[in-house]
Here is the input.
Amino acid sequence: YFSGKTKGLEELVRSHIKNNQPLDIKEVIARFTTDIIVSCAFGLESNSLEVAETEFRKYGRKVFDLKAWRMVLLNSVPRSLLTLCYHLGFTAFPRDVSQFFNKTVQDTIRYREDTKLYRKDFMQLLLEMKNKENGAINKITDEEIISQCFVFFIAGYETSATTTTFVLLELSQNQDIQEKLRAEIREVLEKHEGAITYDAIMEMTYLEMVINETLRKYPPVPMIPRFCTKDYHVPGTEVTIKKGTQVQIPVWGLQTDPEYFPNPEKFNPENFSAENKSKIPEMTFIPFGEGPRMCIGLRFGKLQSKVALVSLLRNFNFTLSEKTHTPIEFEKVSFILSVEGDVWLNATEI
Here is the structure.
């Protein structure tokens, strides 16, 4: 699913180089990520790398194009009232987005069941759970399959795309780090006959450091909501958090606190070297949460980003285009931490 899409990614970058144009890396990576997610979750081809405005790109963009009032309502209405809001016609996402994904999944289910098509992907796992014999535990419905595919798309689409974009944005401004990472990529790939395999990527320790430092400086979800499971007295204060209270964990604040990460505004992958990562205080680096509700897509998302970076950095060098506004600003209304506007980079083949 991953490496099969890298050829299209590389060709898209080469087309910009051929035309002597900078590329909006934010859009390029989003198109790559869309193709991966659609293939893995739905078993379909979206062809977003070849065609700029596919249906999946259109509706994928709308998922995260939230209005301010919708964000406020989602974060302020008590959970007990959310069901009522739904029956009154309010939904978390635009209705046409829900209708598109519902129809896409239903059509896929019907096609696979009619043709007995078997494919090693996320959809196949869900269909096998649905078609268990009567009485089997964990049997799921079509509605649950639709929900799972939608969540898979949301979780893997934007978070991976924004992380990869932030990596390339930082590397374009830190050429020494980019060169060091490229050297590792080429050295490891040479041992694997040039193939981008899972084993090859797992050997790239500096790549892991670069990804983690990006997640530290730019966590995909800056705040994580959690519910207090028992009364908790905050040490040194008169504050007691009552059981059932929703609290917001300030991930971004923790990960950019100089008490835990010296000079936190500096992009420094050495924070996650074998020597230094053991010194990071517990629960101060939690870009995917922690515990039983930790993001289940952690490995998938990181692997997706790594494949894109390996494919690009072994072939191209990136520098910041004058079209990119610096210092960067972040989107004001978004579930995900992302750059406001386009991210223009210059690419040269090497």
Strands lie at 23-24, 223-227, 232-233, 240-241, 246-250, 316-320, 344-349.
